[in-house]
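Sequence in, structure out. Go.
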Amino acid sequence: MVQIVCSVLDVKANAFATPFFVPNRGMAVRFFGDAVLDPNSGLSKHPEDYNLYQLATYDDDSGKLESLSTPEFLAKALDFTTKGQTWKE
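Output:
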C-alpha cells in the first residue's frame, strides 16, 4: 500500500518535525486538525506557527520512499481555530 509521508513545519523555528505516515491526505489533515484542537498539544498553544506538508510517498510493499521535489502544503493550524476564522456579518 502506498502511504504519504507528512510533517509539520514550525515556521518560527524554520524546521520540520519528525515525519508521520498516513494512507491519504484527508487523514493527514484530520489528524493535524485533531492535534491543533487538543488543548494538551503544543500545536494548540501557537497555531499561527504551524503548517502541515506532504514530503513524500512510501510504498510499504516494496520499501520504496520517494521524496517530492518540494514539500506540498496541506493545511494551516490556524485554520482549525476560531483565531483563523473570518467573521462576516
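Check: The longest helix spans residues 25-37. The mean pLDDT is 92.
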